[in-house]
Write a structure and sequence with these properties.
Length: 191
């Protein structure tokens, strides 16, 4: 009898002004779920950056499989954030070593590009460890990329706000202009 597999799926960076949107996909068995919960896994927004970073190696080690997908700022501008987010999620799912029978998606974004079973779950990170794990992987991967970009674009203070529309970031955009990694469609009211 074939084992039924579900992949948790979540996105990070959807509302940022800078950089790509990331998505994580994770398949966990019951034992891995319990182990991650015992290690403190929960909604990535409720974890410190250090705790998230400490969970990443464990998630990668004990998950059945995991993957990250992303869509660039250019894709976001060309496709819109909804379609770009969906592409990032589909990319993550397609990169999984094993294709799941069902997707458990945090939020309410049905994937039009996925022809299999899917379930959207509001506050899914609180209900499904696989979604929480996907969120942690995506958040840490995106934050790491943005911190590297902060070295290239130090005038924007990216290490402080990871690309979100804080007053500091908006002021820097007004002063220095946009980079090729800024989402032009998100900046219409700033410049």
């Amino acid at each position: 009898m074939k084992a039924y597999t579900a992949a948790g799926l979540d996105e990070v960076g959807r509302g940022a002004l800078f950089g790509p949107v990331f998505a994580g996909a994770v398949i966990l068995d019951n034992q891995a779920e319990d182990q991650l919960i015992d290690a403190g896994l929960k909604d990535s927004k409720k974890l410190s950056a250090l705790k998230r970073s400490n969970l990443v190696p464990l998630i990668k080690k004990i998950s059945h499989c995991w993957a990250i997908g992303q869509s660039s700022a250019r894709e976001i501008d060309l496709l819109g954030i909804r379609n770009a987010t969906e592409k990032a999620m589909i990319r993550a799912v397609h990169r999984l070593e094993k294709q799941p029978d069902v997707l458990l998606i945090d939020g309410c974004l049905n994937l039009r590009l996925w022809h299999g079973e899917q379930k959207t779950v509001i506050k899914g990170e609180d209900l499904y460890p696989s979604i929480a794990a996907a969120s942690v992987l995506a958040k840490v991967a995106r934050d790491d990329l943005i911190k590297r970009m902060a070295e290239k674009y130090p005038q924007y203070g990216l290490e402080k706000h990871v690309g979100y529309g804080t007053a500091l970031h908006r002021a820097a955009i007004s002063k220095f202009g946009k980079t090729k990694l800024h989402r032009k469609t998100f900046l219409s009211k700033i410049q």
